[in-house]
Structures are given as structure tokens and as C-alpha cells.
Amino acid sequence: MEIEDPHSKRKSPLSLEDRQEIVYLRRNGMTESEISERLQIPKSTINSVFTKWKTHHIVENLKKPGRPKEITEEEEKMVIEAVEEDPTMSLSKIQGSILPGFSKPTIIEY
Asked: Helices in the chain by DSSP H: which ranges?
């Protein structure tokens, strides 16, 4: 079920089990209102999950569009570890020693 984070306007994503239960209940004749009341999930969320299932035959999150990351997770981890070790490390030093070949704006983004 969705759990509200007091520090965020967004709610946490539905679990895979909740999504599968929504599809199961909807396919077996329950209305969106009945499912909403039973699972304490907004009707709009139930509609979105079921519509995704009807369209794509999946309930998992689809891959998000957008440009892929330029640096790998390993490189990102190296930068974080280096900066945690020396918080005064300059951007030029990161660019020169840890991520040579990457522009400063790319490094700042991570």
C-alpha cells in the first residue's frame, strides 16, 4: 500500500503484491471503489495500475525515458567516498584525479 512520507508530497510506490492484488480483484468483478475501500488506495491509483496491466500486461514499473547516466555507479561511489574523506576537495581535483575526461557540469550533477 502507499505510505505517506511526512517530509514529501509523494507517496511511496505500491508493492508488487498490491499491484497484483488490484489486477486480480478487478478481473474478478470488484469495482474500483470496492478495491479502494478494501486496500485503502485511491481509485485513481487502482485505475492506473489496471490500465497499465490492460495495455502492457505487466504491473511492474516501466523503464523511465530520459538520457542515461554518463558515469557508472562505481565511479559515482568513488566520488562520494573521496568527498566524504576530504570534504574540502575541489571540483578540479575530482575532475583531474577521479573522473578524468568528464566535464565539471557532469561531475556537479552527481
From this structure: 16-27, 32-39, 43-56, 73-85, 91-93, 104-109
Tens of pLDDT, residue by residue, the chain (110 residues):
444 444 445 577 889 999 999 999 999 999 999 999 999 999 999 999 999 999 999 998 888 788 877 788 888 888 888 888 888 888 888 888 877 878 888 777 76
- Domain extents for the chain? 16-56, 73-109
Within 8 A by CB and 6+ apart from 89, the residues are: 82, 83
pTM of the predicted structure, to 2 decimals: 0.53
